[in-house]
């Protein structure tokens, strides 16, 4: 008989592929080695933004005896965030709509506990970030997955509708989407909103939508962005500063309630946010990050340099015969494995000190993901390897003369 809870065992089983990859794979053996080309996680491989360092250094110096006292979602940063988010998304957020969290993962965990009872279902689309399922299982919820549609990985609204049952309480949308880089259009999101309204009426209970938007400000070619919060009133938004600042180890984010939500529903959620954050283990940002928020709000990863990396790698990989989905947002490239054997392809790259994120951890074993946060020297060293591995796989598939 196990001494751990059922929910933790279920989450551990779901996390096992990424745990094995991070701690026990060939990548784990070399992680941190300066000689490898590391395209796995969205980690920085160059020094952090100077403005980030300056803000943390400035606000780490105490101004009074209470500087490092307990900090929940404090009124001043809440008000600041509501004003900025209102400008960005063209919605009228109130300070009480904003729950400041220690990153988007905490915001998502709060949303799950706020909206889902044990045994209720949440739907999300594959390929997907590898934490949705284990986090749902840890909340005693039931994950339901559908596939994105076609080579462009569009939302499959028919599949979402077919997956909705009387137990459905939540649909998760990630835009810009990790790992594909797709940004879902306003028309797609409006169609989804119509679907959720019909389904809610059919099953006799409101289905909520969680919009996971940590890459919202990382968009290429001036691509438009519409938050589901603007088209479906029963939306909660999760956001992280770790992506736009390229500082995932400095945890700062929020959960925001759509201002379009009916006031009775919104007030019920507002009044429960503090309890959910407390019960989950103080899911608030630390004091320094809250003080620094106004200084951090205007900072961003270098989009010009990121766009140049996107073009450089996309064009080189396509010349080498790869199928690459050019991202509209995020800092990833999503590619099909030559030959379709993801394990063999990953091993061939790893044998040459090039490490990518295997698609198997995201539900698509015949694809892989490249993080463009890699340094330029890593990209320079890796491109001949990508080309040679693709050619070797192609040659191996040719029939013998």
UniProtKB/TrEMBL annotation:
* Transferase in keyword set: yes
- List the keywords (alphabetical): Aminotransferase, Transferase
EC number, UniProt record: 2.6.1.-
InterPro entries per the UniProt record, alphabetical: Aminotransferase_I/II_large (IPR004839), NHTrfase_class1_PyrdxlP-BS (IPR004838), PyrdxlP-dep_Trfase (IPR015424), PyrdxlP-dep_Trfase_major (IPR015421), PyrdxlP-dep_Trfase_small (IPR015422)
Origin superkingdom? Bacteria
UniProt key word Transferase? yes
A Pfam family reported for this protein in Swiss-Prot or TrEMBL? Aminotran_1_2
- Domain Aminotransferase class I/classII large, by residue range, is 38-380
Q: PROSITE patterns under this entry?
A: AA_TRANSFER_CLASS_1
| Cofactor(s) required for function per UniProt | pyridoxal 5'-phosphate
- List the GO molecular function terms: pyridoxal phosphate binding; transaminase activity
Q: Which family does it belong to?
A: Belongs to the class-I pyridoxal-phosphate-dependent aminotransferase family.
**Could you identify this protein by its name?**
Aminotransferase
At the highest ranks, the source species' classification is: Bacteria, Pseudomonadati, Pseudomonadota, Alphaproteobacteria, Hyphomicrobiales
